[in-house]
Amino acid sequence: MSEALTAAAQLHPEKEAVVTRDERLTYAELLEQATAFAALLQTSGVERGERVALFMDNTARTVACIYGTWLAGAAVVVINPQTKTDKLEYVLRDCEAAILVADAQLRRTFEPATADLPFLKGFAVNGADGPEALHEQLDPAAEFQEPFVNPLDLAALIYTSGSTGNPKGVMMTHRNMVFTCGSLVEYLRLDESERILNVLPLAFDYGLYQALMSVHLGATLVLERNFSFPVNVLEFAETEQVTVFPGVPTVFATLVSLQKRSPRVIGSVRRVTNTAAHLPDDFVPTLDSLFPGALVYKMYGLTECKRVCYLEPELVNKKPGSVGKAIPGTEVFLLDDDGEPVPPGGTGTLYVRGPHVMPGYWNLPEQTDHMLRPGWLPGEKILCTHDLFRMDGNGFLYFEGRTDDIIKSRGEKVSPVEVENALHAIPGVREAAVVGVADELLGEAVVAYIVPEDGFEPDERRLRREAMARLEGYMVPAAFRFLEELPKTATGKVSKKLLREQQEPETA
């Protein structure tokens, strides 16, 4: 993965690589910072294949640290800055991070998480004053020895929610990620002239790949910290003449609402890309007025292979509801419960075959076997998505539902068990059950059913506040419903099937 940066710096040393509201880095400067960070890792004793955790916001320094990790031959673990202390400690322990780099403003979270980690060789603080400041440790003159890296080496661990309540580290090799970058830029029809906006966390693979595609192309990444102030984002996008505008349905819902109230035109945008959930068809005309002439891409994917399929933009109106066909260089097919091919028009589980499929979950062989099944060749593994699809006679895919309990909301996987554990820790909660409810914008909305303890009145505002203190934002239930008791099966287990069949709740 690091070769893309060295090549871009050789070809376009003075071209803007990363643009933020605070700074602008050329490719020469980005490579200099990345090389300095690689040297810091080597002098800290980081060896090939060890994990470097980045607990950082969306900044140019984060991008430099990602590529510096690869230059040093290590594997990067980008952690969402919204992550709470307990989960941060779990991830650091699970991957046995050799180094943690964290933003200074996250000190209250990372200091208790790193109090007892004997395998941690050191940490650096970005934006701090004093001897631990990252900028003081990055010496461009420090000697850097480029290590040998095999394409099958681990490049990244991308953590996603698991069915047990603990996050799982999706292993991605250099081969996985280099292939994926090439496939993405091919079907999106991108080139080195692009200015790619990113408002999504770099810890989210959709956000991460905006940076990786930019460097892969030698293009420019226009990086925002978040989408909290959408009007400011649009102004920044217009000022910076962005050509690619990636988002999720919640982002586009906000843009549609703004456009109806106060129309504007950003004529530089040539590509609008959507994932995480189906982009409502009635959004497209309004987005066309905001980004006239832009090609709108609908896509589907999951962290375990990054991207599965896409719909050609010329077919958006001809194939409503479809997420298209397999990305270049890969195959998809549907199998029934007996492992037999599903005929056109039938519903089956989607399987994925290609160089982008993960080698497995970090230290989780059973969960790996649940997702990776025997393939067509001896020893080959293919990915079972556990998602139900229908495929028409022309090979176009239509999402039908999920076969497991994991909730996919806002493009992130949410473990019901993890949310339930957090809710059970709140005073006054006797029982809690969490389900996903179909939602046009979120894909699935996280909905919590609560049985209060005797003497506690239902108080949704208090529960939401307590949940926000314990969970990342995308895990906080969109709605709370109060019951006198949860429906149970004959064996005494909570029946989530009955909960889903209850009246559709309103979501926030």
Folded structure, characterized:
Among the domains are: 2-226, Rossmann fold (3-Layer(aba) Sandwich); 410-501, ANL, C-terminal domain (GMP Synthetase, Chain A, domain 3, 2-Layer Sandwich), CATH 3.30.300.30. Helices cover 30% and strands 25% of the residues. It is built from 15 helices and 25 strands. The chain has helices at 2-11, 27-43, 60-71, 85-95, 107-113, 134-137, 174-188, 205-217, 230-239, 249-261, 284-290, 365-371, 416-424, 460-470, 496-501; strands at residues 16-19, 24-26, 51-55, 75-78, 99-103, 122-126, 154-160, 168-173, 195-198, 220-223, 244-247, 271-274, 295-300, 309-311, 325-326, 331-335, 347-353, 372-374, 381-391, 397-402, 407-409, 412-414, 429-439, 443-452, 479-482. Strand 12, helix 11 (284-290) and strand 13 form a beta-alpha-beta unit. Residues 504-508 have low confidence and may be disordered.
Percentage of helical residues? 25-40%
- Could you give the count of β-strands? 25
Beta-sheet strand percentage? 25-35%
Q: Distance between the terminal alpha carbons, to the nearest Å?
A: 40 Å
Strand order of the largest sheet: 11-12-13-14-15
SS class: alpha/beta
Uncertain ranges: 504-508
CATH topology of the domain at 2-226: Rossmann fold
Gross geometry: globular
CATH hierarchy class name of the domain at 2-226:
Alpha Beta
Largest sheet: 5 strands, mixed
CATH architectural arrangement of the domain at 2-226: 3-Layer(aba) Sandwich
Q: Radius of gyration from the CA trace?
A: 23 Å
Residue-averaged pLDDT, rounded?
Answer: 91
| Count, helices | 15
